[in-house]
Design a protein that fits this description.
Elements (H helix, E strand, L loop, with lengths): L2 H14 L3 E4 L4 H13 L3 E3 L9 E3 L13 E3 L16 H12 L7 E9 L8 E7 L2 H10 L1 E2 L1 H7 L6 E6 L22 E5 L4 E5 L4 H4 L2 H17 L2 E3 L2 E6 L5 E7 L6 H5 L9 E6 L3 E5 L5 E4 L4 E5 L9 H6 L5 E3 L2 E3 L4 E2 L11 E2 L5 E2 L13 E5 L16 E2 L2 E5 L9 E3 L3 H9 L2 E3 L11 E3 L12 H15 L5 E5 L18 H12 L6 E3 L2 E3 L14 H7 L4 H16 L7 H14 L2
Parallel strand pairs: 1-5, 3-18, 4-9, 6-8, 8-10, 13-25, 25-29
Antiparallel strand pairs: 2-3, 5-6, 5-7, 9-10, 11-15, 12-13, 12-14, 15-16, 16-24, 17-23, 18-23, 19-20, 19-21, 21-22, 26-29, 27-28, 30-31
Helix pairs in contact: 2-4, 10-11, 10-15, 14-15
Bound molecules: sulfoacetic acid and manganese (II) ion.
Manganese (II) ion binds next to loops.
Length: 593
């Protein structure tokens, strides 16, 4: 037994005072036992076994439906080290507050100890965490999203390192009281805390995904980005995708997008050009390390998909729909009368008899949506029909190119290739997206989301840019190419110019051919772009004029954007790398009339 682990579990038990302690073994029997417990106590329902075998349905408390960025803290000893993009409270003060909340917080509940591995158990690129939680919902989700159980304890050994992740829903259960179907604490008592100097996570008050499944954003991004910086690797908010050319050559891409840009769809894309194939390796997070050959290798640290349900359909993402055939957890979707799920944008008629995500009768005719816009599915990645046979390769896959992107109805062309690594880092650092109904703030505003890491970088964002630059220096000629895409440019009438979805593969294929040194590119003020005819548009109903508009460099609009970009970069103060500031100056010069 790992002494540090044993000691920590005893400490937490003394503080939280649960009724019982259960060490999770990660078996299917354990999952089913907890599922039955939750069904018996009205927290969960089994869906119809014939329609959606072995699948659970949950409704959250209406106040506990998403990550709470304003209650998320990076608690570094020095405030400045958390940077302008993170909330900060001094570690002593934050721990005092949390210790007060944790005191007796698991009364009447079972405390689960979940040993988990981010990445295939035993891979040199993997890391171990142990989550303590008082939520059986969290245990079941962790079973799907990570590798859980005894084999992880074995890999940890007597003196292995692990990231302690403490979680409580923050709702002690008094004797004789019936539990609520989704226990949690009020918003002002929710705290999602990271102590990067100690690799420690303390989460209190929420049962929702990113706040409670601590392996995901808390560990694999916020804490891991700190580890990666110290140890010379990268923890990125990126999907990992393999493309296979007709000649069998394999290419690997890692891509970062802000929310509402179709990241999960791209992770499972079906190429529309004959002979090309694609395989999914991950849909959300990539851990990337330089290999012995000097190239970058990526693993998906997760074992499942925790995806947004609304908008997922046979036309937007058929592979996701097939993945969801069974063994799922659905949270905050519609529950149909015949024991299945439904959501807006599923492209099947709304059920005439159902319950909405708040548990009220619902028939598709009411003005209110039936599913919460952030309703989620949890499902094993292995069930995806296009999961790569190598998705669990402990060595990872070699990355040929990075893709950044955002949603922009004007200004940003379909695709640009960075002039060099520094320029690519500049593209990542200035990535931005128009806000949609899924974001906070008014619709259509431009929000900068550097590397899609805005809420996930666990240290000063200026230092994070420096880390990227240093990586490029280390990789030299083996550095992947970097591209920036915008699938969402519109014409004057507000119609999308590009068909998107599977057709995005045509742009990916140009990238592959660039990586192979086969495809042409021409220099523009924004970077390298495909000249007319370089993108294979065969069989596609997009005319030459539309392509021109998709690839048009609107220098006037870009000059208009410069003050906004400059103000964004100024947020990082003296920690903005000089090389990024120089990239900005070069862009300004290239755009000069
Ligand atoms: O909300 S989660 O962090 O669980 C998932 C996501 O934002 O991608
Ligand atoms: Mn994400």
């Amino acid at each position: 037994m790992n002494q540090k682990l044993k000691q920590w579990v005893e400490e937490v038990e003394r503080m939280c005072r649960p009724e019982a302690v259960h060490w999770c073994d990660g078996t299917a029997e354990e999952y089913d036992r907890l599922a039955k417990l939750m069904v018996a106590s009205d927290m969960a329902k089994w869906l119809d076994e014939r329609k959606r075998p072995h699948s659970l349905y949950f409704r959250s408390d209406p106040s506990d439906v998403a990550r709470v960025e304003n209650r998320t803290f990076i608690s570094t000893p020095e405030k400045d080290d958390a940077g302008p993009t993170n909330n900060w409270i001094a570690p002593d003060e934050l721990k005092r507050t949390l210790a007060g909340l944790y005191e007796g917080c698991m009364r009447g509940r079972t405390m689960y100890v979940i040993p988990f591995s981010m990445g295939p158990v035993g891979s040199p690129l993997s890391r171990i965490g142990v989550e303590i939680t008082d939520s059986a919902y969290v245990v079941c989700n962790m079973h799907i999203m990570t590798r859980v159980g005894t084999r992880v304890l074995e890999a940890l050994g007597d003196d292995g390192e692990f990231v302690p992740c403490l979680h409580s829903v923050g709702a002690p259960l008094e004797q004789g009281h019936k539990d609520s179907s989704w226990p949690c604490a009020p918003i002002e008592k929710k705290y999602i805390c990271h102590f990067p100097a100690e690799n420690l996570i303390w989460s209190y008050g929420s049962g929702y995904g990113g706040n409670a499944l601590l392996g995901k954003k808390c560990f694999a991004l916020r804490i891991a980005s700190n580890m990666a910086r110290r140890e010379g690797w990268m923890a990125e908010h990126m999907l990992i995708l393999r493309l296979i050319a007709p000649d069998g050559r394999k290419y690997h891409a890692a891509a970062a997008f802000p929310s509402a840009c179709g990241k999960t769809n791209l992770a499972m894309v079906r190429p529309t050009l004959p002979g090309w194939k694609a395989e999914c390796i991950g849909d959300d997070i990539a851990w990337i390390t330089p290999g012995k050959d000097g190239r970058l290798y990526a693993i998906n640290p997760e074992a499942g998909f925790f995806g947004v349900a609304p908008g997922t359909s046979r036309s937007s993402n058929p592979m996701a729909m097939d993945t969801l055939s069974g063994n799922c957890i659905f949270t905050n979707t519609v529950l149909t009368e015949d024991g299945d799920i439904w959501w807006e944008g599923m492209d099947v008629p709304a059920p005439a008899h159902a319950m909405d995500w708040k548990g009220r009768p619902w028939n598709g005719k009411s003005a209110e949506k039936g599913a919460h816009p952030n309703a989620r599915f949890t499902v094993p990645a292995a069930q995806c029909p296009v999961i790569s046979p190598d998705w669990e390769d402990p060595r990872g896959v070699p990355i040929d190119f990075f893709i950044f992107g955002g949603r922009r109805s004007s200004t940003t062309p379909l695709v640009t290739e960075a002039l060099d690594w520094d320029h690519g880092v500049f593209l990542g650092a200035t990535a931005c997206s128009e806000t949609t109904a899924a974001n906070i703030g008014s619709v259509g505003n431009l929000r900068f989301d550097p590397f899609a890491m805005l809420p996930f970088c666990g240290y000063h964002m200026g230092d994070y840019f420096s880390h990227w630059l240093a990586m490029g220096d280390k990789l030299g000629k083996s550095a992947p190419r970097i591209f920036y895409v915008n699938w969402f440019r519109k014409d004057a009438a507000g119609r999308f110019l590009w068909p998107g979805y599977g057709e995005n593969s045509r742009v990916l294929i140009w990238m592959c051919e660039r990586a192979a040194g086969k495809a042409a590119a021409e220099q523009t003020p924004l970077g390298l772009m495909p000249p007319a005819g370089a993108l294979d548009l065969s069989g596609l109903d997009v005319d030459a004029r539309t392509m021109e508009e998709l690839l048009r460099v609107d220098t006037a609009a870009w000059r208009n954007d410069l003050p906004g970009i400059e103000a964004h970069l100024a947020r990082f103060g003296t920690r903005l790398p000089e090389r990024i500031r120089r990239q900005f100056e070069s862009l300004r010069e290239r755009l000069a009339p």
